[in-house]
Design brief:
Helices cover 14% and strands 37% of the residues. The protein is mainly beta. It is globular and about 40 Å long.
Length: 160
């Protein structure tokens, strides 16, 4: 796999699993209706639905964080990495809940999950920097930037 191909695949997997087109459960809609910017959640696919569960950001299965909340029909901010979305009566624009120093891998149901840094085909978050998208902040690592709030993740591939 070419350099950083895994990183792109992990980000695409997160977007694919979290993009809600079909129905969601009533409980998920109620949870999402109480959502606030900065809240974390576990969003995964189960039984053809994509449950949304608000949880503490420090939980290992907290795979997303709410970056912005937009009116129904609106789009998430542009100009950086694509946001994942969870849509009920509003659009929750979601970013990965990456923790600096932690490692992540792909999961069919959750998109992205925290894994051991020894896990094959995983990526490590070398830096998580709020408020800047400047060149050079990641050195040789892959830079992923979200525009609102401005947040830069630096990612490095682990073993094959």
């Amino acid at each position: 796999m070419k350099k950083f191909g895994l990183i792109a695949a992990v980000l695409v997997a997160l977007v694919a699993v979290l993009y809600v087109i079909g129905s969601v459960s009533k409980n998920a809609e109620e949870e999402a209706a109480r959502a606030r910017v900065g809240d974390c959640a576990s969003v995964s696919e189960a039984d053809g639905k994509r449950p949304y569960e608000r949880i503490d950001c420090s939980a290992d299965h907290a795979n997303v964080k709410i970056a912005t909340i937009e009116p129904q029909g609106a789009r998430c901010p542009s100009g950086g990495a694509p946001y994942s979305t969870f849509t009920t009566d509003v659009v929750l624009c979601l970013i990965p809940n990456f923790v600096e120093g932690s490692c992540y891998g792909q999961d069919e149901r959750a998109g992205i999950v925290k894994v051991s840094c020894d896990a094959p085909r995983s990526v490590r978050i070398t830096r998580a920097v709020t408020g800047t998208a400047e060149d050079g902040v990641c050195g040789k690592d892959r830079k992923v930037v979200f525009p609102k709030p401005v947040l830069t993740f630096c990612l490095a591939e682990n073993g094959g």
